[in-house]
């Protein structure tokens, strides 16, 4: 027994030592954000990157960045090794934090959504930093801070009006519809517990100005003033609670939800990336599938718009080339291709051509035919407020934990 | 003078004592099995005991995601997580509901597994049911398949309009829409988990039924006992220890399963311990996740302690009964064909229909449309259609990512099999050779501990422990090494159990003859012991290989995009909503595992049944 006790004490001491070691090991450079635009130009950075010669590694939540990387490297930095990997935002946050902290070679630059967690888990800890130069600043303006916006995406309420039993045009005019018992289970979205931007949207709804808009919209829908439950500090919380309690369906991916809604035979809607709208139209061209409609006139909002940020990783091997790549992505060539750029498999690089729901941080870049410019979307959608979400996310998460 | 002589005498006594001690150590270490035991003790303490203790530390620290909610600096001491789990308004949804759901679904999954597996075992071993050969082969399929395979098939088949807005294959075939409770939530979780573990029940109960003394039943027949009475008074009591043992093992497996409740529970917000653990670790409160992991370990320890007790009973019982030369076969008579057809239908439902649904779903140009004109091979052999279509990647047979991850899976499964198989065999050898000694018992218990730790909890521990530099060991986060290490340690119990069982059957005189003849240890192992134990040893390799190939829970939070394996690629595709790809990859995993299982069985005589049944 004594021996066992001695062994346990020894093991505990070893663990304590390891624990101490652990706390002193922060690989981040704590250079949280740039103090303004860098003066280095694309050409200078490209030359420096080529001279550096190290492999360029990119992590991205957006698949187009991977083909853009191939096109860029083939044209501008042939001979230098590169690798692009598509990783979801939650995994990316964990992976980048651990890699930088432990000095493990990972990404040079990341393209990531979920501003709240990027701020708290990566920027505050010094694992990534916000960087932009004069060229980017001239194109992007105020969207350079606090985190540089590379691409705006939007999630809007969609449904199909294929049959009489599904939603018809003009039926969804107020966001409180998803709390109405007659539409129980008629709204689906990717689980906010795993989709950070969805959670940020809910957090943003609890901000005072949005809660007030929701209060007004409630009166317009139900014809009476809102009565808040004791656990709901404002109309934002009340909305979330009623939405969850009204059988909101949680999905594991926007694509799956979109396919289900496109084939739905009952009143069903979803809060989905606009890109799914176009993909569903492709089916309509072939067959009698129902078209997903976007509701743009919903009181007070029809969804939200959120950025994908382009950020520099603290322990980058080739930071110069990473920055040159970032600048290039804002050019028309980087955004849309020029018809001559090719990817690794020889196919022509098309960038964002034909994609609904992607809007360059450089608003001069072209849009897919038929889509609205980002400034129009911003009028009818809530724009992700990363700071407000970062500060209040845990409160809303706790609230949902109680009611889910 | 007298003092000087005395001190000299003391010195020489001390020297003698030291010499004796040294000689004892030398003698101890001259036996290879002792060296092995010492090595196992050191390595397993580091890989099993220290991680268990390190996770406790993590439950008292503020992690970077938690600084806002805790209101303290990262890395500082806190009791926030413990209060939150056990004494807050969130305890119900974080702990009590998930734990109740886990226990409820696991308990009923046991009933389903025993009913299906036990009935099938009885029909195969004690009745004249038709097509036994074919059905016994097919019946093992669900155990070889990844655990969530049946869950995906269930979703494909019974998807219903109330939850998703559209219906699945079942509706397309019959026009009948199943209710939501049938399609999602606890009912399908119970059925699917029960079906997954039914082969387990079949193997364990079947083993007893095969070996039971038929004279007991024959005596009852002579005494004109009614069939039902014979069944309830003789057959059931005899198989009861195996049934209880199966219940404990299935319960433990079901409690630890993640993918099935994730796929079938999430749409209706039905959470169990593993899904809550996954959400916590990946969300903004990993400290809570580590506590949930510890709770799962404690539950497993309780369950396995009961199991140890029951297995002890079973062993002694089996020795008394022995094996009868002639097993009485129950003639089903008029019911022979209907029962055979029913059994065949159940087997097909569990083993073949899921594969057909994966194949079908992977061939649909657009999901949900089961018309012949909608079939395409594009998701298998087609080129990428662009980012604005549903097929933004090339078909899986021309997709370099699929080959890369298949390569990773095979490399990982092979490494885990070699690691766990070899270490398990050596552990079995050394444990049996020093049976009864303190060190042997300690090592035996240490090799078994990973079995007690649910996969996801084990992964959480390794993530916490090996993702940072620990003394001379660099951070293993994102490396192949951490996956190989955890796989080897997690599957070690399977191989070491099989090693211990086989070595127990081998008389030590055989090796002693080699020692007397002066044959060195390595030669004794390679020329005497390994050839005799070949089939069991290969089974000890085969089980970790198959388990690693179909494993998700153990790897899902440790894998990074750079070292993805096929199961995590499938999970990624499913999360992205690439339905056809995820079904195709699922089918690919099953085909690869079945081919390897078949090849190993043909080449060596080893089989999954031997591994599971011991």
Describe the structure.
The complex is a heterodimer of chains A (404) and B (614). By secondary structure, chain A is α/β, with parallel strands linked by helices. Chain A has 2 domains: 28-151 and 306-372, Periplasmic binding protein-like II (D-Maltodextrin-Binding Protein, domain 2), CATH 3.40.190; 153-305 and 389-403, Periplasmic binding protein-like II (D-Maltodextrin-Binding Protein, domain 2), CATH 3.40.190.10. In chain A, 43% of the residues lie in helices and 15% in strands. In chain A, strands 1, 2, 3, 4, 5, 6, 7, 8, 9, 10, 11 and 12 form a 12-stranded mixed beta sheet that branches. In chain A, helix 3 (63-76) links the parallel strand 1 (56-60) and strand 2. In chain A, helix 9 crosses helix 15 (386-403). The longest helix of chain A is centred in the first third of the chain and has 22 residues, at 2-23. The model of chain A is unreliable at 1-34 (pLDDT under 50). Chain B is mainly α and 614 residues long. Chain B has 2 domains: 31-55 and 398-508 and 534-614, MetI-like fold, CATH 1.10.3720; 106-273 and 318-375, MetI-like (MetI-like fold), CATH 1.10.3720.10. In chain B, 74% of the residues lie in helices and 0% in strands. Chain B contains 29 helices and no strands. Chain B has helices at 2-30, 32-58, 67-70, 80-86, 91-126, 132-139, 141-144, 149-158, 161-164, 169-174, 180-183, 186-211, 214-222, 227-256, 259-265, 273-282, 286-321, 336-362, 378-381, 400-433, 438-452, 455-466, 480-505, 508-516, 521-532, 534-549, 566-576, 579-604, 608-613. In chain B, helix 14 runs antiparallel to helix 17 (286-321). The longest helix of chain B is centred in the first third of the chain and has 36 residues, at 91-126. Chain B starts with a helix and ends with a helix. Chains A and B meet through helix 1, helix 4, helix 5, strand 7 and helix 10 of A and helix 2, helix 3, helix 9 and helix 27 of B.
